[in-house]
Amino acid sequence: MKKEVEEFDSTSDTMIIRPDLVVFKSPVEISFTESYLNVRNLWTFFSFKRLSKRIARRIRRFARILVRKFLDDVGYRDVKASVNIRFDAKTSNFTVNFGGEAILDKKLVVDFTKYAFSLTCFRIPEYSIKEYKLMPVSEGDYKFFVILTPYRRNLSKTLDVLKDILKYPYVTLPNEEGTYFLSGFGEDNINEPPRIIDRLVSLMHLREIFFAKKLSDLYSQITSPSKLNNHSEPIMARAIKEIVGLMDYFEDPKPIYRLLQFMHKIFGVERPTKDDLLAIINLLDDMTKKREGLDALKKLYKYFRSLYDEFLLIERIEELGIIRAALRRLSKMVCVSSKGKIDIRGIPAFIHEFVLAGSILAKYQKELINLGGGKAIYISPHEWRCISRELGIAEKAKLEIKIVKRPDGRKYLVISFLND
């Protein structure tokens, strides 16, 4: 007999994600030991009159794939896992046994729970939208969720719960004033420039405080315009003196060599990469922390830190542009009632317009082969291995072919594999 949660090993740990009653209607109960995981209510069906056998079959089949993929991604390729899902009328009980291998800790369990829930939503978007009002959106390699409700202040509990269950960023729809909430950023307004621009401008101003001249002139003074000092040395001369003074504190000269090598690269007017900047920030932090003085190196640390933060902010601005563009398109399609509720009867249009346009995992060009009165496509053994691995297809799968018409009138062919 399989263990139920009530019979779970008394030495196990338990975590509960409380329901917010907007997205999640029941608590997600997570119990685990080092080699066994049980999650109740990870997938629920309160928005369905009855549990669809098709959706249950898809979740059960995909759960095995995502468990295997997660283990491979975190470096446990040799660990075998047995997966079982029991569906009740409105909820589910998900168990994974890792064959006695002691691999689980709290962080891994939290990461896996987010991974399993989020990837299922992307795999079955119509279920995610109907049950959780979460619309998965994929633009190239960037993924995020749109909460299909306009932003309001009393959504704070929902927004707090989602950070414990979603692997990807999430954003609400804009309200009548254009205000929306984006995880990691907070409130913003779609009718105004993103507030993150102010943070980027502040960083650039910080750089000007350190370096009054152009970026390439890094041998110039580092002095605040408000504190002129005609007798101070150039920053590089002071920094090199401080580096020489630190050499006696390092048994291994490699950190000093790496720092000098990097500074030579930067001061040779070669644009640093994000990885370059992170490396020098870590080196300077190790060298200067808990040491008095070293003012020049500490100023260089702040400068390189500001450059690194600029990289991160520019990446965020690119992602923010994708999110805001999706929100504008969505706002034209959805119907919001006077009570702030969303009419989601247009779910198919949502999915066809936004969700099916994901990142390309593999691409093949094939010629049609004449086969009697019909046509055929040859798939090589290598191509089939790639396709079956990505989609979890059984050897004797059947094909389902659909012609789908988009809301804009365009038509395309969808080929699905049916394992049973």
Which helices and strands occur, and which strands form pairs?
Layout: E1 13-17, E2 28-32, E3 36-40, H1 53-73, E4 82-87, E5 92-97, H2 106-123, H3 125-132, E6 134-139, E7 142-150, H4 156-162, E8 170-173, E9 179-182, E10 186-189, H5 196-210, H6 235-246, H7 254-267, H8 274-288, H9 295-333, E11 335-336, E12 342-343, H10 347-355, E13 369-371, E14 374-376, H11 381-391, E15 398-405, E16 411-418
Parallel strand pairs: 7-8
Antiparallel strand pairs: 1-2, 2-3, 3-5, 4-5, 6-7, 9-10, 11-12, 13-14, 15-16
Describe this structure in words.
This protein has 420 residues and is α+β, with helices and mostly antiparallel strands. It is built from 11 helices and 16 strands. The strands form 6 sheets. The protein has a 5-stranded antiparallel β-sheet with strand order 1-2-3-5-4, covered by helices on one side. A 3-stranded mixed β-sheet has the order 6-7-8. β4 (82-87) and β5 (92-97) form a beta hairpin. α1 (53-73) crosses α2 (106-123). The model is unreliable at 1-10 and 209-233 (pLDDT under 50).
Main β-sheet: number of strands, strand sense, barrel status? 5 strands, antiparallel
Q: What spatial order of strands do you see in the largest sheet?
A: 1-2-3-5-4
Give the overall form: globular
Total individual domains: 3
What amount of the residues lies in strands?
15-25%
* Rg from alpha-carbon coordinates: 27 Å
Distance between the terminal alpha carbons, to the nearest Å?
27 Å
List low-pLDDT spans: 1-10, 209-233
DSSP helical segment count: 11
Q: How many strand elements?
A: 16
What is the SS-derived class?
alpha+beta
Mean pLDDT: 77
Q: Strand-and-helix sequence, N→C?
A: EEEHEEHHEEHEEEHHHHHEEHEEHEE
Helix percent band: 40-55%
